[in-house]
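# step 3/5: fold
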Amino acid sequence: MDLPKIRPQPSDVSTAKGSAALMPLVVMLFFVWGFITVLNDPLIAKLKGLFSLTYAEVMLTQFAFFVGYFVFSVPAGIVLAKLGYARAIVVGLVVMAIGCALFAPAAMSGQFAGFLIALFCVAAGITMLQVAANPFIAKLGSAKTASSRLTLAQAFNSLGTFIGPFVGAIYFLKQGVGAPVGADAAALRAARIAGGHLLFGPFLVIASVLLLFALFFWMARNVQQTTIEAPSINPFRRSVLGRPRLVLGVLCIFLYVGAEVSIGSGLTNYLMQDSVMGSEAGAIGRGAANLLSHFNGSRVSLNVAQVAGALVSIYWGLAMVGRFIGSVALARIMPGKVLRFNALVAMVLALTSAALAGIPAAVAVLAIGLANSVMFPTIFTLALEDLGEDTPHGSALLCMGIVGGAIIPLIYGAVADRIGLGHALIVPATCYLLIGAYGWFVLRVRVGQKST
């Protein structure tokens, strides 16, 4: 009878060295999923024109993407418990790569539904990465510096959301966002397939990069072998649902993600309107093209759609800057006050942009990114405060609120179809008003607790 083979465990020294080597790779994962997530913004502008969709219809792209978070969060936790961190990350990367590769058959089919399936698959992979990478990075080093490592990773995630719209606009919007012209159904389908070819090339490159990352993590799959308990979270317990601050916090996460995604999704089409930045974007494009041509030595052209799409990076870039400012402010000012202030500023900026035209309207809507910056983490921490042993259940419930990124954009799109993109900003403005009310509610609760 053969004795069972015992796999040798890595020594503490080799584990420490392996963890140090994995750290940059895990940090880059945060950049990658931030980059891919915001590619949806220029993608929406392209798909709207390519398939002659209404705003409500094209917002199904965000529905397909963000509903993936809702569907796959619990399964991702189960996979993590079964496989461990590195292997779970490999699964997430492979699923994301498959989703990116599906853009090729989607483009070749000339069917909008194909792109929705691809995005749903990409979201499944990103969910797996989020569930695995956030706790994994805490394990790659001393517990004392875990917060520092996570903050660094989140900074790279913000960098990805800043760069993504710019890169997507340059490649996806190369031929503008006009609807294809076809004499009959066959010619129209051929025109859509030709337009779709601009989309799947970049996504195939991304798929290749993701598979390369998956290979690296597979080679390092035995570096960290921490035991992970299987999740047994039931967020719908009475002790959880009976806490008003938590339940209202879930609603605010729903509203915030929905508002942020709605604005980002419609921003390219909004900025390129003649009433906002149409002519100015054209002038910016010509100036930038001349400058690039001078240095590049060959003729470069940038259309209005590319310039408008690239400007979306300012929206996400201001959110990145605001997180650094907010971290300082939150150390000195009560979180409820910061949340209330930022939410009301975002509401005013949205309504101001809706009421104005030209450059002022563009500046106002882009500045919402700065106000958005600290809302998500502030809502999250306020909602979980004093939950004690119910904290994991509250956290799960809050994560489910991210599905607002699937629902609110549909409402925003339907309103935009009726009254225009500018006036439709009343939808996110209403969301921000309710979030501001939550900040006021938390402050009142704290004052009441102090007085008792």
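# step 4/5: annotate
Residues 1-15 have pLDDT under 50 and may be disordered.
# step 5/5: archive (pending)
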